[in-house]
Amino acid sequence: MKQTLTPTLTKFHAGYFRISLSLCSQALLWKTLGEPADGNHLFRRLFRLMPSTAFKILWSLALLTLVALSVVYLLRCLFHFDKVKSEFLHHIGVNYLFAPWISWLLLLQSSPFIGSGTDCYTALWWIFMVPVMVLDVKIYGQWFTKGKRFLSTVANPSSQLSVIGNLVGAQAAALMGWRESAICMFSLGMTHYLVIFVTLYQRISGCQCLPVMLRPVFFLFIAAPSMASLAWDSISGSFDSSSKMLFYLSTFLFMSLVSRPNLFKKSMRKFDVAWWAYSFPLTALALASVEYAQEVKGGVAHVLMVFFSTLSVLVSFLLMVSTALHSSAMFAIPSAQQQATDNNNNNNNNNNDDEEEEDINGRRSEPADGIIS
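== S-type anion channel SLAH1-like ==
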C-alpha cells in the first residue's frame, strides 16, 4: 500500500488545502446570500429562488473534498513524516498547516445540518480550534524568541493564514454567543496582523519573497481584513464603522492587486494548485460586501456586492473546471529530464523577472519542491 501511494503522498502538501478553503468559503457565501434579510436587493432575492438542493450539493462537495484532502495528508504524516517535518520548518509551507482547520471552521459555519447553538457545534469548534491555538503558540513564539525564525526573516504573504485562522475562529465563537472567546481570538489575530502587514509593507531586510509560481498568494492581503470585518460584525452584532474600515481596506488592496496584472502573468503560464489562492480571498471579500450592502443599503454598496459575489463564483467555477482538466497531472511525479527542464525554465524566469521578485538586498528566494508548489 505504501509503495502504491508513495508517488501521490510525495507530491501532496498542505498547499492543496487551498482547494478546500475555496470550496468551504463558497458554501458560506451561498448560505449567506440565501438567508432572509431586511430590504433584500434583487440579486439576493434571485439567489433565494435557487433550490436549496444546489447549496447542499455545494456544501457536500466541499465536505467530500476536505475529507479526501485530510485523509491523504494523514497518510502523508504516517508514511512520510520527514516531508511533513520539512514542511513545518519551511517559511511558507508551515503557514498552510492552518488551512485545513480554517476550512473545517468555515464548513462548520455554513453547515445546513448543525446549528450554532447546539452541543455538536460547540464540540466541533473546540476540535478545530485547538490545533489553530497550538500552531499560534508555536509560530508566534518563534517570531520573537528564536534567532533564525524572526518574523523579519520569514515573513511572506502566506503568513497571514495564521491571522485568518484566529479571525475565522473568532467569528465561529461569536455565532455561538461566546463573545469573550471571540474577542480573545480577534485581538490575537489583529495584533499579529498589524505586525505582519507592517513587516511585509516595509520589506524589511531579510524578508524572503515568493517564487513566481506562488504569486497568487498575494491575494491573501485581501482575505485577512475581509475576515476581520466579518469577525467584528459577528462580535459587535452590526457592520459598524470598524467593520466598514476593514472592508474599505480590503477593497483598496483588491484594486491595488488587479491593477498590476504583470505581477501574476508568469504564474499563469502553467496550471498549478497555487491558482486556488485567488478564490478564497475573493470569496472573503464577497462575504464582507454582502454584510456591507445589508448595512448601508445604497446603490454603490449593492453594486459592490453583486460584482464581488459574481466574480467569486465565476473564479471558483473556472478553477474547478481547470482542476478537473488537469487532475491527472496534479499528483504526477515528473521524470528526471522533465525536472531538469522545469528547473532551467524557473531559473530563466527568475533571471528575467522584475523587481518584485527581489528582496531589499537583491537576494532571490527559491521554491521548495514538494512543500509549497
